[in-house]
Every structure is written in structure tokens, then in C-alpha cells.
Write a structure and sequence with these properties.
Layout (H helix, E strand, L loop, with lengths): L12 H11 L24 E3 L7 E2 H21 L8 H46 L15 H21 L4 H6 L9 H47 L8 H38 L5
Length: about 290
């Protein structure tokens, strides 16, 4: 939705600069023309790494997603393979993470019965988004798996289907009627209200879920690339006293790295929370 032309089949210079920073910022990198190049949207369209020109083509972002999912599965396997009544440290950390979703999202919004029912999907969404987001600040990965529309869109569709399923399961005959024709509204006003309700409930929700998650990670990645590539430029390419500007860009880069960690956690929480809110609205008594 952002780029019409096909992206070049080589990793952009800014990605190389960011990867070099992850290893050691003080190792100079060569530049072609001695000029600073800011980040571009091409960051999110890297060239293929494996299976080029096949339906199974894998680029750097797909590889990052595989790593995030593998790390998530490994974490929960290690944390739950030997469950004890008195948990050890690692089991306690895993259980604390699960309780964040169970207590603060599922049961708080849906109650114990419906909370337990929808807990697996809410937990999956929270941790999948979290692990996909956090790859944006991990050395050698340096890009979020949710910064390209595929994963956010799939998760938004799953959220949307879960919302529809919950409403239809709760009230098969009245769910769509109550959603599109709110009670207490004069019949002539439905000419205006019903299209608005349809758009806001069944179209805007999945779109906003997708864009909110994706755009936050796009902006965060571009800012980090900007600051760290600027740091490399000032330290190793800029002449004279301009090198001192690298200290400032480095400080901003480190500050935004911490901010990106907060954004990664917050976006995962918000995505799961909004999904729970939509489910709660679907199973409300009036439906």
C-alpha cells in the first residue's frame, strides 16, 4: 500500500549501518559517496534470501518472523515442560506473563466464564505481537515482524472473526440486527445510522487494528535507522567538529531504543485489549 515500484533486490545502506551498530558502533563502514542517506520505505521491502521467485520466497523480514515465533515457542516450552506447584524462577516469569493477559485483559473485561473461553486466543495475540515487535531492537534482526502489513492484517482478521463468532454464538438471531439497528432510534433515522454502524463496526475496526500496529512499528524503525545511521555518518564521515554531532544522535538513538521497548509492549497490550473489548461488546446482554 505504500510502494508501487518493486524494491531493489539488495539490502539498503541504512540496514547495513544499523546492523553494524548492533555489533559495534565504533567500527567504521565505507560509504560510496561520502554523503548521508536517510532511511526510506525501501527498508521494509528487502530482497529475497531463499527460494527466490517461488511461492515460498523468504526475505529478511520473513526470517525475523520465523525467529520470533521459534523464540516464543521455545520460551513457553522451557517454562511449562516441568510445571511445579511451587514454581521456580523461570516458571514464575512465564506465569506472570500469562497472568497479565488472564487477569488484566480476559477476566477484567469478559468475566471468568467468557474470559476463560477466549483466553487462548487473547494470550496468543498478546505474545505473538510482543515477540514480533521486540525484534525491532534486537541486534542482527533490527526490524519488527509487524512492520509489514501481513502479520498485522492476519491478526486483525482473526480478531474480527472472533468478534463475529462471539456475537453470533451469543445471539444468533439478534447479533447483526442489534449491531446495525440500535434500540431506541426512530425508524427514519436508521437510514443514516445503519450505514454508519456498519462501517464503524464491521470495516473500521479491522482496518484500525491493522494500521495502528503496523504504523507504530514502521515509524519506530525509521527513527532508529535515522539516528544510528546519522551517528555512523558523523563519527566516521563528517569532517572536523561535525563529528561531535554523533554524540547527540547516539544519545537520541539509545533513548528511542528504550522508547521502542515500551511501544512494543504497549502495542501488544492494546491489540489484545481491543480484541477483548470487541468480544465483550459482542456478548453483551443486549445482543
Amino acid at each position: 500500500m505504500f510502494v508501487v515500484a518493486r524494491a531493489p533486490l539488495h539490502a539498503p545502506k541504512q540496514e547495513n549501518a544499523l546492523l553494524a551498530h548492533a555489533v559495534n558502533l565504533l567500527v567504521p563502514m565505507s560509504t560510496d559517496d561520502g554523503e548521508f542517506h536517510g532511511p526510506s520505505i525501501g527498508e521494509f521491502f528487502p530482497g529475497p534470501l531463499l527460494f527466490e521467485d517461488t511461492p515460498f520466497e523468504i526475505n529478511r523480514i520473513m526470517l525475523v518472523r520465523f525467529v520470533a515465533v521459534a523464540a516464543l515457542l521455545l520460551l513457553f516450552w522451557l517454562g511449562t515442560r516441568r510445571m511445579r506447584v511451587v514454581p521456580g524462577r523461570f516458571q514464575s516469569v512465564v506465569e506472570m506473563g500469562l497472568d497479565v493477559v488472564r487477569v488484566n485483559i480476559a477476566e477484567d473485561l469478559l468475566g471468568k466464564k467468557d474470559g476463560k473461553r477466549f483466553l487462548p486466543i487473547l494470550t496468543t495475540m498478546f505474545f505473538m505481537v510482543l515477540f514480533m515487535n521486540i525484534t525491532g531492537i534486537i541486534p542482527f534482526l533490527n526490524i519488527a515482524g509487524t512492520s509489514v502489513i501481513g502479520v498485522p492484517l492476519v491478526l486483525a482478521i482473526v480478531s474480527y472473526i472472533t468478534f463475529i463468532y462471539a456475537g453470533v454464538r451469543k445471539s444468533p438471531k439478534n447479533f447483526f440486527k442489534n449491531a446495525l439497528f440500535p434500540a431506541g432510534v426512530p425508524w427514519p433515522v436508521y437510514i443514516i445510522v445503519t450505514p454508519i454502524e456498519f462501517i464503524s463496526t464491521f470495516i473500521i475496526r479491522p482496518v484500525t487494528l491493522t494500521l495502528r500496529l503496523m504504523m507504530n512499528l514502521i515509524v519506530g524503525h525509521l527513527l532508529l535507522v535515522l539516528f544510528f545511521s546519522a551517528t555512523q555518518f558523523f563519527f566516521f564521515t563528517a569532517p572536523g567538529l561535525f563529528k561531535l554531532l554523533g554524540v547527540g544522535s547516539l544519545a537520541f538513538g539509545l533513548a528511542f531504543t528504550l522508547f521502542e521497548i515500551l511501544v512494543a509492549v504497549l502495542q501488544a497490550y492494546v491489540f489484545a485489549l481491543l480484541t477483548a473489548v470487541y468480544i465483550q461488546l459482542a456478548v453483551a446482554e443486549e445482543h
